[in-house]
Amino acid sequence: MSGLRLLAGPSLSSGSETYADHVRRLGAATLAGRALIEALGRSGLTGRGGASFSVAVKWKAVAVASKGRAVVIANGAEGEPQSHKDRLLMTTRPHLILDGAFLAARTLRANQVVLYVGEEHGSSWAAMERALDERPEAERRIARMVAAPHRYVAGESSAAVHLVEAGIATPTTTPPHPRERGVASAPTLVQNVETLAHIALIARYGDAWYKSAGRRGAAGTILITITGGVKSPGILEVEAGTTIEEAVAMAGGVSEPAAALLVGGYFGAWVPVDKGWALPLDAAALKAQGMNLGCGVIGVLPATRCGVCDTARIMRYLAQESSAQCGPCFFGLRALSDAIGRVAERGTNRDDLARLKRWAVEVQGRGACKHPDGAVIFLRSALSTFADTFASHPAHWRQQPA
Ligand SMILES: Cc1cc2nc3c(=O)[nH]c(=O)nc-3n(C[C@H](O)[C@H](O)[C@H](O)COP(=O)(O)O)c2cc1C
Ligand code: SF4
Q1: CA distances from 382 to 290, 296, 304 (A)
Q2: Of the ranges 42-46, 90-94, 343-347, 394-398, which one carries the lowest mean pLDDT score?
Q3: Residue 266 CA: which ligand is closest?
Q4: How do 110-118 and 258-263 pair as beta strands?
Q5: Which residues line ligand 2 at a C-beta cut-off of 6 Å?
């Protein structure tokens, strides 16, 4: 690759880049308006917050509905416990994110920009606030910071709108999607902060430049968080299409033999290592195989850990994080968490195994948001990847930290 893109520039350890340094290094964006939307379409850029949705399609929908009163929300909630890439970007390159947000506002004729930052991400909040203070007055006038509560669902797009509107970060029934009717009933673009940073670079260098990075037919770069059994866990910027094996090698390689890989974080999937190493970090290619790049988390499960116990721990967390508004999500995830908890603690029993398999299908598609769907897709991947362990799990509960 021609080098880092989002993370290019001054050393990350030197903190956030100032506006003066940012402008000196990158100059001004040359594309905006319709030309920018067309470039985004040609680039094929998809969102980095979890759903990998087409950026151009969303921008076009907001542009059509806008009529001069759209709203832009830069989503820096980063509620996924294993993900740290949005925090790193907000802390070190806040002006790339702000460029993307203000370009969106200009293009979509938005009169409000909300910087929605996780309340627990203290240094990211401080860097974004400082960066906003450095921006031109016309930008500062329409922008404000809003704290995202420390809850998993607070980063979901309708929950972000709900918080801005009414101070409550719970998802609301969709449709209408925020892009149709969001803050103050205006069409609202909710875009992940990494996505906005890519937009800032495409607005300077164009779609052909964006696509000049990428392996195996994929385009651009991706921020990923590698966790678990690797020698140097952390955040990497890799070319899209890089295989998991290549990314793990960039993180120093495995620290001990691996049993399985978690691709996409808590809304992703467990994959056996023999299948997982060759998977490309490319949203479209993973989708074609029934998987999800999500927010770019890759977890390496060492053979010394128990996949069933780890899954039970994560299911308990996801059940607790339901916003308790929809029965199938609140009761269904709790029942699933209890059943897998019993298998982990007391050992396999056929009734609980049968319940897990049945409920993991029944819960899907029955919530107002995708929270239960993400949880049961994750659970089903565990039932398949750790099928042998589930079949004869001993009576123990290896309470392991995340
Ligand atoms: C339960 C849940 C939690 C989510 N949390 C986040 C989050 O913390 N940050 C984020 O950017 N997107 C999150 N999303 C995805 C958002 O709903 C939305 O798709 C995203 O912010 C849109 O931006 P993008 O298209 O640039 O990815 C979450 C989705 C769900 C269902
Ligand atoms: S599906 Fe779950 S998390 Fe989503 S709104 Fe309903 S109860 Fe809340």
Answers
A1: 14, 19, 17
A2: 394-398
A3: 1
A4: unpaired
A5: 153, 170-171, 322-326, 329-330, 367-369, 371-372
Residue showing tokens 């089903």: 380
The DSSP letter of residue 252 is T
- Write out pLDDT tens, residues 113-172: 999 999 999 999 999 999 999 999 999 999 999 999 999 999 999 999 999 999 999 999
What φ, ψ does residue 54 adopt, rounded to 5°? Answer: -60, 125
Kindly give, in sequence order, each residue whose CB lies less than 8 Å from that of residue 222, ignoring residues fewer than 6 positions away: 48, 237, 238, 239, 240, 242, 281, 293, 296
**Mean pLDDT, residues 76-82 taken together:** 97
Taking each helix axis from N to C end, the angle separating 33-43 and 94-108, rounded to the nearest 10 degrees, works out to 120
pTM: 0.97
Spatial separation of the C-alpha atoms in residues 66 and 58, rounded to whole Å? 12
**Which of 371, 373, 376, 377 most suits a substitution to test ligand 2, by most atoms within 8 Å of the C-beta?**
371
Domains annotated for the chain, with CATH where assigned, are 12-211 (3.40.50.11540), 221-302 (3.10.20.600), 307-391 (1.20.1440.230)
The phi-psi region of residue 324 (left if phi > 0; otherwise alpha if psi is between -120 and 50; otherwise beta) is left
Report the alpha-carbon distance of residue 280 to residue 271 in Å, rounded: 13
Give one word for 260, left, alpha or beta, with left for phi > 0 and alpha for psi -120 to 50. Answer: beta
HSE of 181, CA atoms in CB hemisphere, 13 A: 6
269-272: strand order across its sheet: 234-239, 221-228, 297-302, 258-263, 269-272
Closest CA to 172 of 188, 187, 153: 153
The reply to whether ligand 1 has any atom less than 6 angstroms from the CB of 267 is no
User: In this structure, are residues 314 and 378 in contact, taking their beta carbons and an 8 Å threshold?
Assistant: yes
pLDDT, residue 5, reads 98
pLDDT bin (cut points 50, 70, 90) of residue 174 is confident
Are the beta carbons of 183 and 161 closer than 8 angstroms? yes
Q: Does the beta carbon of 308 lie inside 6 Å of ligand 1?
A: no
CA dist., res. 321 & res. 152, Å (int) = 6
